Every structure is written in C-alpha cells, then in structure tokens.
Amino acid sequence: MSEKTLVNRVVEPVYDVEDKPPLKEAVPLGIQHVLAMFAGNITVPIIIAGILGMTVGEKAFLIQSAMLVAGIATLVQANPIGPVGARLPVVQGTSFGFLPTCISIGKQFGLSGILGAAFIGGFFQMILGAFLKTVRRFFPPLVTGTVVLTIGLSLLPTGIKYAAGGVGAKDFGDPSNLFLAFVVLVTVIAFHQYAKGIFSAASILIGIVVGYIVAVFMGKIDFTPVMEAAWFSFPTPLKFGMTFHPTAIFAMLIMYIVTTVETVGDISGITMGGAGREATDRELSGGIIADGFGSSFAALFNALPNTSYSQNVGLVSFTGVMSRYVVTLGAIFLILSGLLPKLGAIIAVMPQAVLGGAAIVMFAMIATSGIVLLSQESLNRRNLLVIAVSLGLGLGFGSVPDALKFFPEWFKMIFAGSGIVVACLVALVLNIILPKDKSASESENRNVNA
C-alpha cells in the first residue's frame, strides 16, 4: 500500500478485500447483500414484461433469468477472469438506468430488439473499460465524488417509496407500511450501534429478518407464490431471440456510456466508503469491463443490462465489510435463487416496506461516501462552484423531467429523470474548462515535487 493511500485513509474496514470471515459470519453477510438488491433486480423485468404484455409464465422466466445472471456477473466481479472483474465486493444486478431506453426500444422492436441492442452495447462497454486509464485523469475525486453524492441523493426518494409500500401498491402510504419500515430502521440502528461483531456487521440482514417476521404477523405476506414455485428450473438461453436495429443500438450505446460513469462512481464509493482510499486504475477498468461482460452475457440468457448496484455500495460503507469472499457467497445464493425458483419466491414475497426501512440507511450512506470523496479535494470557491452547479442541474432535472418534454425523444431518453447523467456531464465539463485557483495549482505542484 502506498504512502499516499495510508495518508488518505480515513476509515478502516472491518474486513478488507482479501479477508475471509468465518463461514458463520460470511454467509449471513452475503445474504444481506442479496436482500439489499433483490427487489431492484426483479422489478425491472416485471415492469418490462407488463409493458410488453407477456404472460405470467414469461414474467416468472424473466425474473429467474435476472437472478441467475446477477449471481454470475457478481461472481466475476469479485473473482476476476483475466482483466474482467474489479476484485472488489461489487454486486451486479439489472439496471434501472436502462429502463426508459428498454421501454422505448421494446415498444418498437419487442424484447428481441432490447436483447440485441444490449448484447452489442456490452461489448462497447468492455472497450470503454479497456481504455479507461487513458481518460482516468478526467475523473478526479471532484467529479467522481459529485457523481456518488448525486447517486445517493437521487436514491433517497426511492427509499421512502419502498417504505411507503412501493410505487403502484394499493396501500401506498398506509401507516402500517411506514410502521413496518420504522421497525426495520430502528432494528438496524440498534444492532449497528450497540451490538458487536457479526451482529453489528449484519445489522441490515437482522433488520430485514425482523421486519419479515413482523410482516407475517401483520398478514402482509401471501405465501401462495412460494407454494406454486418449482423446485428446480434452468433458464433457456436465447428463448426470445435477438434482433439488431441501428436506432436501438445507438440509444443503448449512449446508456452504456452513462452506466460506465455510474460504475466509476460506485467503485469509488466502495473503496472510499469501505476502506478510505481511492480506487485504482485496475479496479475501475476491470469493474467496467465486467459490467459490459455481464450485460452481454445477460442478453444471451434473456436478461436485461446489468450494472453495479448502488445500494450495495451503501451497505459496504455502512458495515465496513469489504471482503469479496462475502460477496462471492452472496453471488452463489443469487445463482441458487435463479436455479431454485422456490427459494427466490421466499424473498420475492417480502413486502417492499421491509426493504424500505433498510434502504433509507443504505442510500444515505452512498451520499456520505460522496462527501468523503469530495473531502479529498480542496473545497475552494472554484470546486464548490463545480459541485453546486452539477448538483443543482442534475438533481433539478432529475426531479422535474417534464422540463425537457419538448425535446426529442432520444434526448429525453438519456437526460430526463436521470440526475446522475446531467450531474456527471456538468461536473466533467466544468472541471475541464474552469481555470484552477492559483493557490490550488501551487499546492498540487508542491505535492508532486514532495
């Protein structure tokens, strides 16, 4: 570890990247990662299946495929194959960021058009990852920190929506949902702060289990889907085929550029929030290549584009558990969920309010990781202006997508509703074109000379 890394480190991980906690600790910590991302991973295929008018059986098949692919992609991230993989506790899952683009493509070309464009786009992202070192200098902590902070802040409303019962729920906002989320939140805080060892590190899992049990007694869980689910099933590759359309591929390539930037932010958030250091070029490059590989592989198995999951970034920051061994066990559990539908159904019937209580903490921790990254920079007037304008435009347009309603469809597809895209581009451009303060430049030169 370099002297610079030691100086910059502000937190010590409970378990570092190569640490292997005892199995009795590693298993619940791995399952905790799966529970944190499970709802998001299956929600996207559910939405797409509904919009495309697919049958209940086809919808279940897409959910199964999403779980299997997420597990395999996560396994590769934690256990690299050559240059493919970050060798970090990066959890992969179906990307919400691609949802508007997938909907637009699906309405014109069907699921096969989505899968074909996603397949090509994955290779494009792998190329971006391979050449990341060339453009890394354009992504200092000022830019990546702003992106991570934007990710965290933009996800906070999602956490509250989960806590209220989930968007579209008939009882959305019902006091019983908020009570359930509050029980989970209080449990998480109590175990994290007052328990020791595994009981502190697994506080999210404990909170979700407690919420699940309370939900059963409240009559909020219907176990019929669990009883009806099969014991074993293997997703058939290319069941829906692939078709390739230039307009669909172009729109998808733009989104792969966007998700590449998000992945840079997520990986930076993991290393900074979990271990108090910046991500290396190798970690970022391998992570992005694995992102693209996972998405192309996903298309072969009828799943939508994959990306790193921000809620798991928050989980790493919250628990201090950086062990890739833990995430490897979580990946195995995801794969089993994809092969054993009954196991996946047990998690799928969990009320979203239970996840909401934990999500509020995890999403907020992502924002704090962004703050830690930004603290690595000199917060002079110039840098504060970059942060302010990026957050102002990013979160502003992200919150009011109708402000762009008169723009072309492809433009809205990329920018409307995604504060992360806008904030990233603004931070990137301003950091390049705005002259640095003389004092800051002199300070950098002194550091280099030293």
The rough form would be described as globular
Mean pLDDT figure: 82
Return the structural class.
mainly alpha
Question: Helical region count?
Answer: 20
Instruction: Return the domain count.
Output: 2
> Low-confidence parts, pLDDT < 50 over ≥5 residues?
1-9, 443-450
What about the largest sheet?
Answer: 2 strands, antiparallel
Order of helices and strands: HHHEHHHHHHHHHEHHHHHHHH
Beta-strand segment tally:
2
Task: Measure the end-to-end span.
Answer: 18 Å
Order of strands, main sheet, comes to: 1-2
What portion of residues belong to β-strands? under 5%
Helix percentage: over 70%
Radius of gyration: 21 Å
Produce the secondary structure layout.
Elements: H1 3-8, H2 23-51, H3 56-78, E1 92-94, H4 99-130, H5 132-135, H6 141-163, H7 175-194, H8 198-201, H9 203-217, H10 224-228, H11 246-275, H12 281-300, E2 306-308, H13 310-319, H14 324-339, H15 341-348, H16 352-374, H17 381-399, H18 409-415, H19 419-433, H20 438-449
